[in-house]
Amino acid sequence: MRYRNPLFACAAALICAGFAGCGQAPQAQAQVNEPPRPTADLFVYRGGGCTGRDKLPAFITMLGREPQGVVAFAQRDTWPGMLGSVRWSMNCWKGKDYRIAQSVPMLLDQGTTLAEGAAGAYDRHFEEFARILVAAGREDAYLRIGWEFNGSWYPWAAAKDPPAFKAYFKRIAGIFRNTPGAKFKIVWNPARGKQQIAPDLVYPGDEAVDVIALDLYNQSWRPEDKADPEVRWRNHVVQPYSLGWLRTFAAQHGKPVALPEWGTGSSSNGQGMGDDPIFITHMAEWIAANNVAFTGYWDYPATDYNAEISGGNAPKSAAAFRAAFGP
């Protein structure tokens, strides 16, 4: 943030320069005003498996450097389909030195329940899931088990059966951790806001979680947010179960935080905030100021939310992103 009061700016420069005088202040002032740069590992989603691999160069060109990791997903049609999609995805990233943030579906889209999972009915599938990752050299992957569980849009929605969700989450976490050679980090990852159930009501316990995360997209239904990006940003922080809550809740449990999915762009519901460099800059500042293990930008034109900034359609956001996260 730039100092607006010239007397205050001069005083700050004097302090940093050892009282050398305002005439020698410009370099010191620049050092004072330079915002801290995020040091958290930067991940990105450019698409599933080989699609993401092939589209990654555009993001690298925009950013000016390589990211540290990529976000990955798995199918939910059948158990063999899920495991096959993980094998395919890991093969696509073979030989690429990116850490993986693997999203782990707890259930299939049809015919499975949280209660059956908590009772162990699906253990063998997660045992194989873990073995696939270890065999692919991805034993240090971050695992987003049942991500965005507080919403209604995934089959493992925690509001359907909160006790079973917690028990099942712990069960899956234990399977992955007990796999020979595993060094996985378990990520507990709600979506922003209360949604269908307050996330903290279904926290599975510190022993089952390594990282507390949040998915956050730049959208709002409030007229005041749409009118003023600074007001909108403050709401992203102070809204219940948003960034302020994430920081406090993680600190209470002694865990680092993560933002595996975040972005700005257009949404199918018309509430996306588009090319918003202020959001990008403030997110970078928040990441730099907090104990963030990793952050994943959603550089992908999904049908429900298009946050792609590497394609040339969001030049202001792309410039802000490069300034904050680039070389």
TrEMBL record:
Signal peptide range: 1-30
Domain GH26: from-to ranges: 1-327
Active site annotation, chain numbering: E148 (proton donor), E261 (nucleophile)
Alphabetically ordered keywords of this record: Glycosidase, Hydrolase, Signal
Record carries keyword Methyltransferase: no
GO terms for MF: mannan endo-1,4-beta-mannosidase activity
Taxonomy, superkingdom: Bacteria
GO biological-process terms attached to the record: substituted mannan metabolic process
Similarity comment: family membership: Belongs to the glycosyl hydrolase 26 family.
Name of the protein in question: GH26 domain-containing protein
UniProt source species: Sphingobium boeckii
Lineage: Bacteria, Pseudomonadati, Pseudomonadota, Alphaproteobacteria, Sphingomonadales
